[in-house]
Each structure stands twice: as structure tokens, then as C-alpha cells.
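Our working data are protein records whose layout never changes between entries. The record below serves as our worked example for the rest of this section:
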Amino acid sequence: MSLSDELFRSLYGSNPTPPTPQPQWGFKAAPKPQAIPIRFAPQPPLVKIAKRKVFISYHHIDQAYIDAFRKSFGSIYDVFTDCSLDEAVESTDLNYVNRTIAENFITGTSITIVICGNETWRRKCVDWEIYSTLYKNHALLGIMLPTVQPIWSNGQQVRRIPDRLFTNYTTGYANIVEWPQTPQELAQAISASINRSTQFKLAKNNSAPKMGRNI
């Protein structure tokens, strides 16, 4: 069994019903997509690029995807150095948790990757992590999970992403891509995000107040 099949089966079992990619994020309608499974295709040697230290922001309901993402792109294909939390910060004080994450994990990285699932946009800790990323002038990359379901808004199908991420995508500072199928795709997305954060540095918008609660 190949590595890609092994990762795929770990998420979906031996006889999965493959997830269906969804319409584009934001507020544009998209044609009905075809169902394709999440597989990591056989890879040629990865072109050597500067490996980045990354912080991964996500909702823990998507933990299975995060584990597969870290294992494949971080440990196996060596696209990035994962500086994210291995386990939750033990405290009931969310301000302390956010401060600890910002000082001990986001500091020292060059980019935050936000894995966007169905409920990610509702989570205040994700918003705080994006806030801290922008405050430190780090690059920002959103990656859409292929399981995200569309909703109707103003007569169009859309997929919700964290507001602060979407705001900075519209200014040009942040980058958003679909779930990468190859390490080359992810490496290119990270590189493009670093370039955008430099090119559109003055367009960064972190003015919105931090979320006070989960939506």
C-alpha cells in the first residue's frame, strides 16, 4: 500500500465515499464540482526551496486532517518546519492561552497556515491567532478543507472563512488556496504567500476588534 493510500484510508476507511470539493470561497457562485478523493499523488523529488517555519491555526474538530497534513507535508515531504502546538495550553484563561501561543509559537515563524473547515470561521481563538500573525507582519495562508459545505448568501453559494483572513485576502496581503494535492503545490502556495505579505505589506488590515466569543 502506498503512502497516499495509507493516509487516505486513515481518514476515510477502506471503502470511502470521497468528499466533494466545494465552490470558491468569498461571495462568488461556482459550478457544481466533480467528486474527487483526497490523495497525495506520486511525487517527483521536491525542488529545493527555503523551508519555512509555520504555525498552523485550525479548529480541533478537523484534527484528523491536521494530523495527516502535518505528517505528510511536514514530516515526510519536509516542506515546512511545524512550530505549532503539540497539545493544548493548559489554562482556563483564554487571554493567557492566546498570549502564550503568540509569544511561544507564532513568534519565530514566518507564516501562519489557517486550515479552513466548516466551523473554523466561528472560532475566536482562530481569529486571535490570525490577529497575532498580522500584528507580527507574518505571512498568512488559508487552505480550504475539501469537506467544507457551501451555504447560500444573497442568492449565491459561498464557503465561510474567518473574516480577518478574508479581509486580508481581498487587500492582497493574504493568500487562499484549495487543499494541496502535492508537496509542490503547498511549497508554491507558501512561497506566494510570503511574497504577497511583502508586496502588499501596506495593505494589511488588522483593524477589526478581536472576536469576544465563538459565534
